[in-house]
Amino acid sequence: MNVEDYFKSLGNEIEALKQRVRHIIAGRHWQTDGEWKESVVRQILRRHLPATAIVGRGFIVSAKAATTQLDVLIYRASAPVLFRDGDLVFVTPDTVLGVVEVKSRVTANSFAAAVRKLASAIELVRVHPNSEAFAAVFAFDAQSSRSDIYLQKTADAAPDWNSRHSFASLGPNRFIRYWHFDPLDDHRQYESWHSYRFDGLAHGYFVHNVVDAVSPQSVFRNTDLWFPDGGKEPCCDGYIRGPWFCAGLRLCSRRWPRPP
After folding, report:
1. DSSP per position, 89-112
2. Where are the domains of the chain?
3. How far apart are CA 62 and CA 98, in angstroms?
4. What is the model's pTM?
5. How many whole angstroms from its chain centre is CA 150?
6. Which residues are paired to 192 by β-bridges?
7. Long-range residue pairs from 108-113, CB within 8 A, at least 24 positions apart, any chain
8. Phi, psi (degrees; rounded to nearest 5) at 206
9. Dist. CA 235–CA 144, nearest whole Å
10. Distance (Å, rounded) from C-alpha 235 to C-alpha 227?
11. How confident is the prediction for the chain on average, in pLDDT?
12. At residue 41, does pLDDT exceed 60?
Protein backbone atom coordinates (compact mmCIF):
# COMPACT_ATOMS: atom_id res chain seq x y z
CA MET A 1 0.00 0.00 0.00
CA ASN A 2 1.36 3.43 -0.96
CA VAL A 3 0.24 5.41 2.08
CA GLU A 4 1.66 8.71 0.87
CA ASP A 5 -0.33 8.57 -2.38
CA TYR A 6 -3.40 7.54 -0.40
CA PHE A 7 -2.97 10.57 1.88
CA LYS A 8 -2.75 12.82 -1.18
CA SER A 9 -5.91 11.30 -2.69
CA LEU A 10 -7.72 11.77 0.62
CA GLY A 11 -6.59 15.38 0.71
CA ASN A 12 -7.74 15.90 -2.88
CA GLU A 13 -11.15 14.48 -2.02
CA ILE A 14 -11.51 16.82 0.95
CA GLU A 15 -10.43 19.78 -1.17
CA ALA A 16 -13.06 18.90 -3.80
CA LEU A 17 -15.85 18.38 -1.26
CA LYS A 18 -15.19 21.67 0.52
CA GLN A 19 -16.16 23.67 -2.58
CA ARG A 20 -19.33 21.78 -3.45
CA VAL A 21 -21.85 23.93 -1.57
CA ARG A 22 -19.95 27.15 -2.28
CA HIS A 23 -20.26 26.53 -6.02
CA ILE A 24 -24.04 26.15 -5.66
CA ILE A 25 -24.76 29.12 -3.37
CA ALA A 26 -22.07 31.34 -4.98
CA GLY A 27 -21.13 32.98 -1.70
CA ARG A 28 -24.67 34.04 -0.76
CA HIS A 29 -24.87 32.19 2.58
CA TRP A 30 -21.58 31.65 4.39
CA GLN A 31 -23.17 29.94 7.41
CA THR A 32 -24.45 27.14 5.18
CA ASP A 33 -21.04 26.82 3.57
CA GLY A 34 -19.41 26.54 7.01
CA GLU A 35 -21.92 23.93 8.16
CA TRP A 36 -21.22 21.90 5.02
CA LYS A 37 -17.48 21.93 5.74
CA GLU A 38 -18.10 20.65 9.27
CA SER A 39 -20.27 17.91 7.76
CA VAL A 40 -17.47 16.95 5.34
CA VAL A 41 -15.07 16.37 8.24
CA ARG A 42 -17.64 14.27 10.10
CA GLN A 43 -18.33 12.19 6.96
CA ILE A 44 -14.65 11.48 6.39
CA LEU A 45 -14.06 10.46 10.00
CA ARG A 46 -17.07 8.13 10.02
CA ARG A 47 -15.57 6.17 7.13
CA HIS A 48 -12.45 5.35 9.12
CA LEU A 49 -13.48 5.05 12.76
CA PRO A 50 -14.73 1.80 14.32
CA ALA A 51 -18.40 1.24 15.09
CA THR A 52 -17.55 1.69 18.78
CA ALA A 53 -17.03 5.43 18.14
CA ILE A 54 -19.89 7.70 17.09
CA VAL A 55 -19.21 10.96 15.26
CA GLY A 56 -21.64 13.81 15.88
CA ARG A 57 -21.73 17.43 16.98
CA GLY A 58 -23.01 19.08 20.11
CA PHE A 59 -22.24 19.74 23.74
CA ILE A 60 -20.41 18.18 26.67
CA VAL A 61 -22.34 18.67 29.90
CA SER A 62 -21.23 18.05 33.48
CA ALA A 63 -22.94 18.79 36.78
CA LYS A 64 -21.01 22.07 37.04
CA ALA A 65 -20.39 23.25 33.48
CA ALA A 66 -21.17 22.82 29.79
CA THR A 67 -19.19 23.53 26.65
CA THR A 68 -20.23 25.68 23.75
CA GLN A 69 -21.30 23.74 20.65
CA LEU A 70 -18.52 21.56 19.24
CA ASP A 71 -18.24 21.05 15.48
CA VAL A 72 -17.17 17.41 15.79
CA LEU A 73 -17.83 15.38 18.92
CA ILE A 74 -16.69 11.75 19.02
CA TYR A 75 -18.04 9.60 21.83
CA ARG A 76 -18.35 5.93 22.83
CA ALA A 77 -21.19 4.04 21.17
CA SER A 78 -21.73 2.01 24.34
CA ALA A 79 -22.38 5.09 26.48
CA PRO A 80 -25.78 6.67 27.20
CA VAL A 81 -26.46 10.19 25.97
CA LEU A 82 -28.38 12.95 27.67
CA PHE A 83 -30.07 13.94 24.40
CA ARG A 84 -29.73 13.01 20.73
CA ASP A 85 -31.47 14.26 17.61
CA GLY A 86 -29.71 13.25 14.42
CA ASP A 87 -26.10 14.42 14.63
CA LEU A 88 -26.83 16.73 17.57
CA VAL A 89 -25.96 15.24 20.97
CA PHE A 90 -25.52 16.24 24.58
CA VAL A 91 -23.09 13.89 26.33
CA THR A 92 -21.33 13.60 29.68
CA PRO A 93 -17.54 14.08 29.86
CA ASP A 94 -16.74 10.44 30.62
CA THR A 95 -18.14 9.30 27.24
CA VAL A 96 -15.97 11.58 25.08
CA LEU A 97 -13.18 10.22 22.85
CA GLY A 98 -12.30 13.46 21.10
CA VAL A 99 -13.39 16.89 19.90
CA VAL A 100 -12.56 18.79 16.72
CA GLU A 101 -12.96 22.45 15.82
CA VAL A 102 -13.44 22.95 12.06
CA LYS A 103 -12.38 26.12 10.26
CA SER A 104 -12.73 27.11 6.60
CA ARG A 105 -9.60 29.24 6.80
CA VAL A 106 -7.57 30.09 9.89
CA THR A 107 -5.76 33.28 10.67
CA ALA A 108 -3.48 33.64 13.69
CA ASN A 109 -6.38 35.11 15.68
CA SER A 110 -9.01 32.55 14.65
CA PHE A 111 -6.59 29.71 15.35
CA ALA A 112 -5.90 31.16 18.82
CA ALA A 113 -9.64 31.32 19.49
CA ALA A 114 -10.09 27.73 18.28
CA VAL A 115 -7.40 26.25 20.54
CA ARG A 116 -8.69 28.25 23.52
CA LYS A 117 -12.19 26.88 22.90
CA LEU A 118 -10.79 23.36 22.68
CA ALA A 119 -8.76 23.85 25.86
CA SER A 120 -11.90 24.75 27.79
CA ALA A 121 -13.81 21.76 26.39
CA ILE A 122 -11.11 19.14 26.78
CA GLU A 123 -10.28 20.17 30.35
CA LEU A 124 -13.85 19.24 31.25
CA VAL A 125 -13.19 15.76 29.84
CA ARG A 126 -9.66 15.09 31.07
CA VAL A 127 -10.46 15.60 34.74
CA HIS A 128 -12.02 12.15 34.58
CA PRO A 129 -9.68 9.24 35.44
CA ASN A 130 -8.10 7.35 32.51
CA SER A 131 -9.38 9.81 29.91
CA GLU A 132 -7.22 9.86 26.78
CA ALA A 133 -9.54 12.08 24.76
CA PHE A 134 -7.97 14.21 22.05
CA ALA A 135 -8.62 17.80 20.97
CA ALA A 136 -7.86 18.91 17.42
CA VAL A 137 -8.28 21.68 14.86
CA PHE A 138 -9.08 20.98 11.22
CA ALA A 139 -8.69 23.96 8.89
CA PHE A 140 -9.27 23.61 5.17
CA ASP A 141 -6.92 26.52 4.54
CA ALA A 142 -4.48 28.70 6.51
CA GLN A 143 -3.63 32.34 5.97
CA SER A 144 0.03 32.02 6.97
CA SER A 145 2.60 29.34 6.20
CA ARG A 146 4.77 30.31 9.20
CA SER A 147 5.00 27.54 11.79
CA ASP A 148 6.04 29.81 14.68
CA ILE A 149 2.74 31.70 14.67
CA TYR A 150 0.63 28.58 15.17
CA LEU A 151 3.07 26.96 17.60
CA GLN A 152 3.03 30.00 19.88
CA LYS A 153 -0.78 30.19 19.84
CA THR A 154 -0.88 26.46 20.64
CA ALA A 155 1.35 26.85 23.70
CA ASP A 156 -0.38 30.03 24.90
CA ALA A 157 -3.73 28.20 25.02
CA ALA A 158 -2.36 25.37 27.19
CA PRO A 159 -1.04 26.63 30.54
CA ASP A 160 -1.35 23.11 31.95
CA TRP A 161 -1.19 19.56 30.63
CA ASN A 162 -4.94 18.90 30.69
CA SER A 163 -5.68 21.86 28.43
CA ARG A 164 -3.27 20.89 25.62
CA HIS A 165 -4.56 20.33 22.11
CA SER A 166 -3.42 17.15 20.41
CA PHE A 167 -2.97 17.95 16.72
CA ALA A 168 -4.05 20.25 13.91
CA SER A 169 -4.28 20.22 10.14
CA LEU A 170 -3.84 23.78 8.86
CA GLY A 171 -4.52 23.57 5.16
CA PRO A 172 -3.25 20.67 3.06
CA ASN A 173 0.44 21.31 3.81
CA ARG A 174 0.78 22.08 7.54
CA PHE A 175 0.34 19.62 10.41
CA ILE A 176 0.98 20.15 14.14
CA ARG A 177 1.19 17.33 16.65
CA TYR A 178 1.76 17.12 20.40
CA TRP A 179 4.32 14.59 21.69
CA HIS A 180 4.25 13.48 25.32
CA PHE A 181 7.36 11.39 24.65
CA ASP A 182 10.11 12.19 22.17
CA PRO A 183 9.12 10.75 18.77
CA LEU A 184 12.75 9.68 18.27
CA ASP A 185 13.16 8.30 21.81
CA ASP A 186 9.93 7.04 23.33
CA HIS A 187 11.52 6.68 26.80
CA ARG A 188 12.21 10.41 27.08
CA GLN A 189 9.49 12.70 28.41
CA TYR A 190 9.20 15.54 25.95
CA GLU A 191 5.98 17.61 26.27
CA SER A 192 6.35 19.41 22.94
CA TRP A 193 4.43 20.27 19.80
CA HIS A 194 6.10 19.77 16.44
CA SER A 195 5.11 21.53 13.25
CA TYR A 196 5.50 19.69 9.94
CA ARG A 197 5.55 21.04 6.40
CA PHE A 198 4.12 18.55 3.90
CA ASP A 199 3.14 18.52 0.26
CA GLY A 200 -0.59 17.76 0.31
CA LEU A 201 -0.39 15.21 3.16
CA ALA A 202 -1.64 17.17 6.18
CA HIS A 203 -5.32 16.24 5.85
CA GLY A 204 -4.42 12.56 5.53
CA TYR A 205 -2.24 12.78 8.64
CA PHE A 206 -5.14 14.42 10.46
CA VAL A 207 -7.62 11.66 9.67
CA HIS A 208 -5.22 8.87 10.57
CA ASN A 209 -4.17 10.60 13.79
CA VAL A 210 -7.82 10.66 14.81
CA VAL A 211 -7.96 6.92 14.14
CA ASP A 212 -4.76 6.45 16.13
CA ALA A 213 -6.21 8.42 19.05
CA VAL A 214 -9.39 6.31 19.09
CA SER A 215 -7.84 2.89 18.29
CA PRO A 216 -4.14 3.12 19.23
CA GLN A 217 -3.50 -0.60 19.65
CA SER A 218 -4.73 -1.51 16.17
CA VAL A 219 -2.80 1.33 14.55
CA PHE A 220 0.36 0.39 16.46
CA ARG A 221 0.15 -3.19 15.19
CA ASN A 222 -0.28 -1.96 11.60
CA THR A 223 1.76 1.25 11.52
CA ASP A 224 3.05 0.69 7.99
CA LEU A 225 -0.53 0.73 6.69
CA TRP A 226 -1.56 3.86 8.56
CA PHE A 227 1.42 6.19 8.06
CA PRO A 228 3.98 6.79 5.29
CA ASP A 229 7.45 5.25 5.46
CA GLY A 230 10.07 7.42 7.10
CA GLY A 231 7.69 9.17 9.47
CA LYS A 232 7.06 12.87 9.89
CA GLU A 233 10.26 14.01 11.58
CA PRO A 234 12.25 14.78 8.40
CA CYS A 235 9.51 17.33 7.63
CA CYS A 236 9.62 19.03 11.04
CA ASP A 237 10.20 22.78 10.68
CA GLY A 238 9.64 23.97 14.24
CA TYR A 239 8.69 23.05 17.78
CA ILE A 240 7.59 24.52 21.07
CA ARG A 241 7.48 22.97 24.51
CA GLY A 242 4.50 22.98 26.83
CA PRO A 243 4.62 25.84 29.36
CA TRP A 244 4.12 23.40 32.25
CA PHE A 245 7.29 21.53 31.16
CA CYS A 246 9.34 24.69 30.67
CA ALA A 247 8.58 26.05 34.14
CA GLY A 248 9.05 29.55 32.75
CA LEU A 249 12.51 29.04 31.26
CA ARG A 250 13.08 31.43 28.37
CA LEU A 251 15.15 28.78 26.55
CA CYS A 252 12.09 26.61 26.01
CA SER A 253 10.38 29.16 23.80
CA ARG A 254 12.88 28.52 20.99
CA ARG A 255 11.33 26.77 18.01
CA TRP A 256 14.30 26.00 15.79
CA PRO A 257 16.26 23.81 15.41
CA ARG A 258 14.82 20.68 16.98
CA PRO A 259 15.45 20.69 20.78
CA PRO A 260 18.36 18.63 22.14
Report:
1. EEE-GGGEEEEEEEEEEE-HHHHH
2. 3-253
3. 16
4. 0.90
5. 13
6. 179, 241
7. 108/143, 108/144, 108/149, 108/150, 108/153, 111/137, 111/139, 111/142, 111/149, 111/150, 111/153, 111/168, 111/170, 112/153, 112/156, 112/157
8. -60, -55
9. 18
10. 14
11. 88
12. yes
